[in-house]
Amino acid sequence: MTLPELTEDCSRCAGLCCVAYPFEAHEDFGLLKQTDTPCPNLAPDFRCSIHSSLAACGFGGCVAYSCAGAGQRVTQVLFDGETWQDDPDLLTHMTHALRVLRPIHEALLVLQEAAALLLPQDLRNRCNELTAAMCPDEASSIWEFEEEAVQDALAAVPEFVETIAPFAQDRG
Fold first, then answer.
1. By C-alpha distance, which of 164, 105, 159 is closest to 134?
2. Handedness of CA 63, 154, 171, 8 (dihedral sign)
3. Long-range contacts of 27-31 (CB under 8 A, 24+ apart)
4. Torsions phi, psi of 117, nearest 5?
5. In the 8-state DSSP scheme, what is residue 27?
6. Which residues contact 71 (CB under 8 A, 6 or more apart)?
7. How is residue 138 annotated by DSSP?
8. In angstroms, how far apart are the furthest CA atoms of the chain?
9. Measuring CA to CA, which residue among 44, 18, 170 is closest to residue 98?
10. Which of 24, 112, 115, 138 is spaced 20 to 30 A from 122 at the CA atom?
11. Model pTM?
């Protein structure tokens, strides 16, 4: 089983995080922004026009954010490199896909760390089962990730993490 890229590569994304999520004007975001609305700081090339001064401009939430590779997977794999700027009808589909895929990628990161622990065979098997369930074969649309087996595996990760916590603590 091959894991997807789990590190963000903004150069291969369509600025999805800057569109998909709402912002509330408070200490982490310098403005109010609705879901599925491009941030006014998003440049036409999908780069942040204030990236070098995000924290100073009140966008600490952006500084802390990581899509864990989901953004480029949505853009490059699920949408074959097309963007919502090329076809505005894709906007809600792409942002929905990011909101589905990002928690899966984050869970896969956790499971990747778990796999590096010295776990008993039953927990190692469970880790592999959860990972495999969240990596559907030849997934080419968001629907594969919305399947019950994938979503059940995602929901099972927090409980799994609790069961392996003693092994992670022994490592530290």
1. 105
2. negative
3. 27/58, 27/60, 28/58, 28/59, 28/60, 28/61, 28/64, 29/58, 29/59, 29/60, 29/61, 29/62, 30/57, 30/58, 30/59
4. -80, 160
5. T
6. 8, 9, 10, 12, 13, 14, 16, 17, 98, 102
7. T
8. 51
9. 18
10. 138
11. 0.93
φ, ψ of residue 143 in degrees (nearest 5): -60, -35
Joined tokens for residue 5: 């890229």
Instruction: Please say whether the beta carbons of 10 and 47 come within 8 A.
Output: yes
